[in-house]
Amino acid sequence: MHKGVIMIDLLATHEKLKKLIASFSRRSKQIYVVGGSVRDTILQREHIDIDFATDARPELVKTLVAEIEPEAIYTVGERFGTIGAIVDGRVLEITTFRSERYKPYSRKPDVSFGTSLEGDLSRRDFTINAIAQNPLTGEMIDPYNGLKDIKARVIRAVGNADERFTEDPLRMMRAVRFAAQLGFDIESGTAQAILRNHRELRLVSQERITDEMNKILLSPNPGQGVRRLCDLGMMEFIVPEFLELRGTEQDEYHHKDVFEHTLIVLDRVAPDLRLRWAALLHDIAKPVTKVIANGEVHFYGHDIVGAEMARSIMLRLRLDRSTIDVVHKLVSMHQRTNLYESSWTEGAIRRLIRDAGDELGFLLALSRADITSRRPRKVEYALSQLAELEERINRLIEQEEVKALKSPLDGNELMAIFNRPPGPWIKGVKEYLLSKVLDGELAPDDKETARKMAEEFVTRERGIGKKE
Q1: In this structure, which CATH number among 1.10.1200.10, 3.20.20.70, 3.30.565.10, 3.30.460.10 belongs to the domain 5-151?
Q2: What's the pLDDT band for 403 if we cut at 50, 70, 90?
Q3: Which among 14, 134, 165, 320 is least surrounded, fewest beta carbons within 10 Å?
Q4: Pseudo-torsion of CA 122, 123, 128, 131, nearest 10°?
């Protein structure tokens, strides 16, 4: 059924790529399309990169590619036998057949060049990635029944699963990632091997773990992926705090526990990494803030506590500073929009707009996803309130540049008025004047009224008054 699909789709329409493939044959060298390129073509998933495996050594590969595209070669992976190039707009990685041998307790294999395609395929992680195709004849080489597993939509380790996972424990996370990306199940024997070996994940570098976690969160099924990480024991070495959400029950109108609620929210938000992390961590502090008063469940301050927990978690995972800052803001503010009422003043909405800044859209999206009550009327009311808030926000933004609003008097002007040196006192006065601007009681350019208000404020505030 799949014979010739790569040859027809690519070689017939990409002349330089066709010439490159032919040049290997002229040198009596084998070359096959392998791994994810074959898998994704079969699944009709879009992909630009094409992975090849060959018995040609890297020096010959460079020579053959240079004959077609001399300026397109990059050799970052050459020491591992991989030569990269861009040919006909396609990113190619051509890797010499390899064999690997792992030393005990080492995650870094001794890599040597192999001589056979079968040997090369045997070192791969999952059967769906251990398929090769001859690009000239269309013949499929499938020694581990990967085609059958693709049809059955399962992730199965190549050969002995325990050996594959002890060779490189990150493969356990990759199993979850592929399942989340493709909508596949993990074959029971492979899943059991992950459970047996999940503690080996502690030996993997934080950067590699975080990279896989990001890919799981950006997949079409992030909730499924996170659930599997928890069920298979790996979350203990990624975000152990998340495990505490299981069994943390909310009120009678919510889903059974915070864990299930969070997975629903995660699946509902758009595939932006910052938004997905915010969804994952927005209720992370509920287990530590839970109290029961008069028979009612409360999570006082879980947004503020959660924001600091989220920052600590993301720093530990070595996420970039920009992502950390955005997620921290979203977690700290997610209750603001959830608690909106029609009685809010325009000043309160202006404050929300200013405080959210560029993340306002993310904040509203997170709030919309966060509505998961079992009661249809409660959901309908919450959605209508959020729609009303968005309408008021949009109207204010159209009328005025809320984000640009500031105190009419800057620090230099305040120091001159009060004859005082710089200090923390300036911030208090500016915030007071800004609050008046946001409430519509002071025009942004009315310096005279601002001066009078500032003088009244410092007279009232102990320890700020004029210097005698």
Answers
A1: 3.30.460.10
A2: low
A3: 320
A4: -50
142 Rama class: left (phi>0) / alpha (psi -120 to 50) / beta: beta
H/E run at residue 290: strand 290-293
What was the pLDDT predicted at 466?
A: 45
Distance, first Cα to last Cα, the chain? 92
Q: How many CA atoms lie within 13 A of 22 on its CB side?
A: 10
Q: Which residues contact 463 (CB under 8 A, 6 or more apart)?
A: 425
Q: Distance (Å, rounded) from C-alpha 273 to C-alpha 328?
A: 13
| Per-residue confidence (pLDDT) for residue 100, from 0 to 100 | 63
In this prediction, residue 10 carries a pLDDT of 63
Q: Where are the domains of the chain?
A: 5-151, 155-238, 245-403, 406-460
Residue 109 is predicted with a pLDDT of 58
**322: CB partners within 8 A, 6+ apart:** none
C-beta pairs of 299-306 under 8 Å, 24+ apart in sequence = 302/335, 303/331, 303/332, 303/333, 303/334, 303/335, 304/332, 306/281, 306/282, 306/331, 306/332
The mean pLDDT value for 147-157 works out to 97
The answer to whether residues 170 and 70 touch, using CB atoms and an 8 Å cutoff, is no
Q: Please state which CATH number belongs to domain 245-403.
A: 1.10.3210
Average pLDDT over residues 57-63: 94
Which residue stretches of 218-359 are H helix? Answer: 222-231, 258-268, 273-281, 286-289, 302-316, 321-338, 346-356
Could you tell me the pLDDT band of residue 203, with boundaries at 50, 70 and 90? very high
C-alpha span between 35 and 6 (Å, rounded):
13
Beta strands per DSSP E along 47-156 = 50-54, 73-74, 82-87, 90-96, 98-101, 110-113, 132-133, 140-141, 154-155
Q: For strands 82-87 and 110-113, give the pairing.
A: unpaired
- State the Cα–Cα distance between residues 14 and 430, nearest whole angstrom: 64
- Mean pLDDT (whole number) for 75-80: 82
